Amino acid sequence: MNTKNTLLVITLSVILAACGSGSSEGTAAPDNGTTGGNTGGNTGGNTGGSNQPSSRTDGITDVVQNNVKKEAINSFVLDGKTITLLPEQISVDGMLNNLGGNLFGDTLSKAVSGKRYANTRFGILLPEGKDAMAFSQGVETAANDMPNINGVKYVGDYVYYDTKAVKKEFKTGDLNATANFADRKIVIKMDDNNFSGNIVSNGFTIDGGKGKFYGPKAAEFSGTRVNGSGITAFGAKKK
To answer: Global pTM?
Structure first.
């Protein structure tokens, strides 16, 4: 895992100070591994699939959510309870990072994508005493609404968390991607690391991860990736 350039991310220092909470932000790009994650559906508002994450021996549960209804995009079923991912009182475009703080009564340690994304939510959840969980969910693009052109550019965010690191922190950074829909290929760059993958129907796979396109004509995408003890959640929208 190589931690490179420090990039500008959305900070919540004023809000967190007012709420007496703490957050951790930084940048680190996940290295090129080949460990994959599971694909499931969220029972809290999904139109298909069931949420059946598999626990991993390294303390990671990796879940990719499919086809969440838009009204349920900010909800997630965790340990049988529906939680709110982004507190209503907080308006963040990029990533909301809360590690051990209290945000308007929300004490779950998590990093969650903000309101920049209209069709997807992605991030990492750290429920106390449980495995870390990377998630990705959204309003899935219909297969017959996928573009058929090359050179489509996306910009976005990613968050990385190492379950075995001495210093517990969320590390965030910028993401740039090019989707060549006609050739069924995608290249995703997270800081200094490039991940090449294949587009299949309305989804894609990369080294160690997978994701889905969301919104009309693949307006956005998000996904998750696992590499050893590290997990990454990432997403982007069209330029």
So the answer is: 0.77
DSSP per residue, 100-130: S--BTTB--EEEEE-TT-SSEEEEEEE-TTS
Tokens standing for residue 221 = 């995408």
Among the ranges given (4-18, 101-115, 209-223), the one the predictor scored with the smallest mean pLDDT: 4-18
Strands 230-238 and 171-180: unpaired
Exposure class string for 164-179: b at 16+ Cβ within 10 A, else e: eeeeebbbbbbbbbeb
Percentage with pLDDT > 70 across the chain = 74
Length of the chain: 239
CA distance 104 to 90: 9
- The sign one gets for the Cα dihedral 191, 198, 162, 101 is positive
Q: What is the DSSP letter of 145?
A: G
Q: Where are the chain's structural domains?
A: 13-238
